[in-house]
Amino acid sequence: MSTIVRRGTRVQEGQIRFHYDGREYFGQPGDTAASALLAQGVRHFGRSVKYRRLRGVMAAGSEEPNALLTVGTRPAVIPNVPAPRLTLHEGLVLRSQNRWPTLSVDLASLLQIGGGFFGAGFYYKTFMWPNWRTYEPIIRRLAGLGEAPGACELPPVAVENCSCDVLVAGAGAAGLAAARAAARAGATVVLCEREPVCGGELEFEGGTIEGRESLNWVAATLTELAGLGARVLTDTDLVGGSDGQVVLHRQRGGIAGADTLYRVRPRSVVIATGAVERPIAFIDNDRPGVMLLGAAECYLARYGVRVGREAVLFANHDRVYAAAARLAAGGMQVRAIVDTRSASTGVGNSLRAELERTGTQCLSGHAVIAVEGGREVRAVRVAPLAGSGPERRIVCNVLLQSGGWSPNTQSGAQDGGAREYSPGLAAFVAAEQPLWRAFAGTANGRLELCDVLADGQIAGEHAARQAGCATGAGAGAVTAIDARGDGAPRLVAFWRSPSPPQLEKKQFIDLQNDVTVADLRTALAEGFSDIEHVKRYTTLGIGTEQGATSAVLGAAILAELKGVPPGAVGISRPRAPFAPVTMQSLAGLRVGSAFRISRRTPLHAWHAAHGGVLESSGLWLRPRYYLANGPDAFTAGIAEARRVRATGGIVDGSTLGKIEVAGPDAAVFLDSMYLSKASTIKAGRGKYMVNLREDGMVLDDGLVLRLAPDRFVATTSSGHADHMLSHFEHYRDTQWNGRAVTLTDVTEAWAVIAVAGPQSRATLQRVLGSAWHEILTRLEHMGFADGHFQGRDLRVLRASFSGELAFELHCRPGIAVTLWQTLNDAGLGPYGLEALDILRVEKGYLVSSELNGETTPHDLLMDGLVKLGNPCLGRELLDRPGLHKPARPRLVGVRARDGRSKFLAGAQLCTENERTHPVGYVTSAVFSPTLDQWIGLALLARRLGEDTQLLARDPLRGGDTPLRIVPAVHFDPTGERMKQ
Amino acid sequence: MSRLHCPFCGPRELREFRFHKTLPTEPGTAFAGIYERIDNPELSVEHWQHVEGCRGWLRVTRNPSSGAVLETRLLGGGVA
Amino acid sequence: MNGTDQRDAMRCTLEVLPVARIVEFVAFGAAHGTLAGDWPRAAGAALRGADGWPVILHFAPARWLLPQPDVTMIDRIEAAVAAGAGAAIEVEGKWVTLSLCGADAARLLSSSLDVAAVLAGRDCAAVELFDCPAVLASAAPDYRIYIKSSFAADFTVAVERLLRAGGAAIG
After folding, report:
1. Chain A residues touching residue C82 (CB < 8 angstroms)
2. Distance from CA of A453 to the nearest CA of C (A)
3. What predicted TM-score, i.e. pTM, was given to this entire model?
């Protein structure tokens, strides 16, 4: 327990207790996991993914490559949370990753001593003998970054869809200036900032802006933005987006729980996300204690944490001296400053002299060659870059490095944006961008405060103009005086320290993926020279920080190895999400039952309450069978089908598609949509009709009922309802444009109950009352009558899908349950989809298995319909020779030759002579209780005769079954039962 | 292109629309229009339906190579 | 600290309104011209009743929704049909009428789509809300939602999930 209260811009007094790797630690309110653990001397935050080397914190933001922690206890764990982003709260449980059994003693790292197995592309070259599957279980255990949560309830995510005129990403100096300029021009502004507070580097670098102290300026600007109606979102990262949409992710405290995903459509975007400090490659530059210089300043200023007692600073620019002075003033002892620039580039300044006076050794033209210490930095070795001179060993416990700054141009590579190399900055900046996106500030390569502010203002005004707002003639330049003296950095590019070839494999570039200089050399030697290929082959920049710290360094070193300037190599394109986002955040609201919507019929509750086993049929939930009739679909289906043929039953057909076609031209319109004429149907009657697609294939079938001269109801199969509606709508709006015909989907305006079986009529007469008695007696097949049931609309149609005497009741949904219950009470039991299928196969009726879009009316034995048919859509191409060849399929019935064996839909049909060349396949197969054997429908090559001996081959589900061909109508071929 | 301007509903997300077909670039037989069509990579005239909105049918003229949408027009309504 | 706190419960309520009769009026071709007076002609326009709620909604080309039409409305429809302007289809049971009222109604709907953009400059719009086809109408700050009835159950579940308070942070 630390008794010293640290002071900083983010921490307050107080104590928060948390656990890390099983031990208890304490932090202050406002601390992150990184700051609190660093404050208590913890140096180890995990092991690397390939080599399992011990790692510490390197950065102070989400670009942190090493210190990824797992939050929570199994199974509700969130992996890969960067420690610098993890705000502490009481009781937090944290664990380091990639180590077993403990962080200090890791078995896998012991196994790797001396091994060079994991170089670039190792999986192509190693673990081959005898079979790579021998190694697969081990590799699976060792591979990956962190562990995924098990089955658990994670906190729900909020989603918001919105638009604005200008989106500004980043609320540092440039972002605030841009947001203010855009808001003053009248634009609606959304400003997002990934940290919990706004201000960016102004938080610790200070300065004076427009006469105010920098933090006061930040506060005043935020107040003004609030007054102008701008929306400021903190803890919010820009994580991706494309085609004009930007995705923001808000994660309070950096861990899942209370996440919000924003999908924003801005008219224009200003990217002011700053720059990420760049490391330098030298031997063992990944040891715990090697950190970025700016990060150390962040920890000191924000959290009052000194990241080490004795520091050595290593950089290639002037700002290292000001940083050293600040760190020394904060209580750290700066042993040495290693500046790679030679003395002749004029780096002498008063700060340097002052530092030397207080005991800091300032070396120019030198570089840190290597770090000593396995578990943490103990010393560094420094050597001159030119000429001869002694190699020195400087004892320290933290090495702070800065190779410059890489502007955060991640989104600048999307949507047609380009990036180019800037030699002055030794980094890549955004080049050509679409008009609606602009970069500002450090993200745009500006390093001095006055330039940053001016850049932000210009970008904000430009963005507002792009969004259509009028801007005034310049609101006046933003005046800024950088009082801290962090002037021009005068940077000279430096990428890696010299090293003997055999130690290049210890010079790390991408710490998260353990990519070293040796890997780049290997990739080049093996023929991968394009940066995108090198990225994929070596895994450079594919981790959670998407190359924020590693991409520029990797590209520059690759260029050096190739002997070309960095601009010639380019950098790889980062992929969204640009900061770690949990899978759950991306799923948004589509979790649990909301993963997939389902549709319910008006009788749904009744089915659920009476043992109906509901299954998805497309989006609809429909009962497959009822538990009262059997324990499984097979048994219950047979029992239900048997009962329908014996006495009767009721089935819910509400999913049937129904389209009301109305208007003076309705009849002629339908004539052109169906193979047969609709105009010849008399009012009060229906007709079985078939639609063709343009290419002559059968699209769907259904009944068309004529209600009046200018009004019809066209029914479609349940699965095709939406498609058929679109089909009709398309023709109405193109070929039939301007004619008086309307189409209305009334599928949900009518519930449908089919009453089938020998007792159907008698039961209906009892239930519907005397008004219907006569009608039901005299109703002919395909006739219908309109009336009422308990005061509500009822239409009774005599039609059969089971081959039994049957009636379809179309009623308003409000009365459906009452009607259904009344029929049930009167002795008719419900049957489900399983029985429905058995009954229709017995009668050779067709469903989507046969009407599959690849069959013509001829194939389906509808020659009669075609002959009588009229010139309709698809008729022209139906007559083409290709659809009449002997190889075309023909619908047949099939049964097992032994009258007993089972076969299934999908079985391929072969002849006895040609067992490997299918001549057709089984489209539907059921066990028929009526015929006491398996029966089916099949599509078989037309050229084969009816006595062909067939073999149903089903290699995946077992066995071959000899079949014989029978008529497609297995039962009651003359349809006597229906005509009673 | 991730938004289409539906002439009835206004600009909407692309996922609300369903592509139906590309029209032939020159008049010909029904067979040619379906099976022998050669599309123009710079200019495509297509039929889309706003299925998750007003269910209106749209004639969309666009440049498939660049993704730019040149024009959207509502089909039907007696207007050519 | 700035930023809206999304973890507060949504302050709004969802209520099913029982509606006995709903009619869709569909015009023939270019027969719009014969629709008289204040019949909403512009896309997305609605004629509002005395209580501010829409009584005729122009939610699709050549199609109007008339929820719970009163006697005057029925007369207008019949006149339009008689004049050959179009057809009136009884669609009772096709749409479930819901009322979403409260300060956070817009925020709740924004979870599914950009409500402000969709209803910009119009009174009603055909949309998909939480994957359910619907017609959305506004009477700020409240909304009336006509959901296709087979989707109503899942829609209500989706809304009620959002109406409950957010979960606690993972610990």
Report:
1. none
2. 22
3. 0.89
